[in-house]
Amino acid sequence: MTITKLRAQCVLLDIEGTISDIRFVYDVMFPYAKKHLERFLAENWEAINVQDAVRTVARDAKIPSIDDWLGPEWRKGESAAVLKFSHHCQQLMATDSKATGLKLLQGMVWQFGFESGALRAELFADVLPALEEWKANGLDLRIYSSGSLLAQKMFFKYTVLGDLTNLFSAHYDTTIGTKKEVDSYERIAAESQFDPSEIVFVTDVYSELIAASQAGMQAVASVRPNNLPLPAEFTGLTVTSFSQLHFSSPIRLSDT
To answer: How far apart (Å, rounded) are the C-alpha atoms in residues 199 and 196?
Structure first.
């Protein structure tokens, strides 16, 4: 097994294909959201957070008027409005959309699933020992996923290994920017107060590796079962297990 040694203060992690098998997300979590979304909307339509998500979905789709789209009485949860909106969300899910509004709604549905015990997040076997070791050694651990902040927190609170939320100091989703944009990683570095060079970002997605690298972060490709293969032109660091990643603190100018 090849050991990769890096100097870092912070480890920024993707979830699907990195911490958890991508099949768990696509075969368990997504089908659960598809199955339960319409009922969730019908039962919770007038909740403030749901109506905020409806507005975000409309904004994502560049719909100028929700009244024209769903009808002037849409706020009251008329069945026709709920059905039309649910159908739109189902179409987004069918294309694996990363739209912020959809992710907000998925997170709400998954929250019900996790809290009811219907869902329990599954992690690769090497993940928890590595996270605990990194945390004990003083590394700052953060998550950046296209799933909403709520979905991320539910995922780590309700895992098959228990509540892991205390391991992470921050979570980021598409409200800070999409994962393919260099600016998103620059914002995360600024918010975390770490220099980009002090952050290691681990993900299975090529475009994210490139964006993080261009922002000055150290990018490491996660090569896991069921992940899409990386393009031949990728020549950066790769790992098949977190046990291959070893860290030491970077040398700062103030230390010399």
So the answer is: 5
Phi, psi of 181 (to 5 degrees): -100, 135
- Residue 56 makes CB contacts below 8 A (sequence gap 6+) with 100, 101, 104
CB 41 within 8 A of CB 86: yes
**Domain 4-20+121-255 fold:** Rossmann fold (3.40.50)
- What's the rounded Cα separation, in Å, for the pair 28 and 22? 10
What tens-digit pLDDT sequence spans the chain (256 residues)?
A: 577 789 999 999 999 999 999 999 999 999 999 999 999 999 999 999 999 999 999 999 999 999 999 999 999 999 999 999 999 999 999 999 999 999 999 999 999 999 999 999 999 999 999 999 999 999 999 999 999 999 999 999 999 999 999 999 999 999 999 999 999 999 999 999 999 999 999 999 999 999 999 999 999 999 999 999 999 999 999 999 999 999 987 655 444 4
pTM: 0.90
Bridge-based pairing state of the strands 140-144 and 10-13? parallel
